[in-house]
Design goal:
The protein is mostly beta strands. It has no helices and seven strands. It has a seven-stranded mixed beta sheet, with no helix packed on it. 8% of the residues are buried.
C-alpha cells in the first residue's frame, strides 16, 4: 500500500508518497462539487480521482489498472 501525503487546505498541490515518489493533486469544480485528481510523476503510480465525500483522512482505495491493481491510503499532514 502506498500512502499519499496531502495538505488538507483545499488547494492544488504537490504530494509526496510513502515510497519516495511525488505527484500532484489538482482540484476541479471547487465551487460546485470538488473533485480531487491525483497524477504521479514518471508514471510511478496509477492516477485516480476522489469526490468530496471520498476525500478524507485515512481513506483507503484500490485503483484498478490494466496489468495490476494498486492500493492507496490518503494521509493528511500539517
Amino acid at each position: 500500500m502506498t500512502t499519499v501525503y496531502v495538505h488538507n487546505n483545499n488547494q492544488s498541490q504537490t504530494v509526496a508518497c510513502s515510497d519516495g515518489s511525488q505527484g500532484v493533486m489538482r482540484i476541479s469544480n471547487v465551487d460546485v462539487a470538488p473533485r480531487y485528481n491525483f497524477k504521479f510523476y514518471s508514471h510511478a503510480h496509477l492516477g485516480f480521482w476522489l469526490d468530496k465525500e471520498q476525500f478524507h483522512n485515512g481513506k483507503s482505495l484500490i485503483v484498478k489498472g490494466v496489468l495490476e491493481n494498486e492500493r492507496f491510503k490518503i494521509q493528511f499532514i500539517d
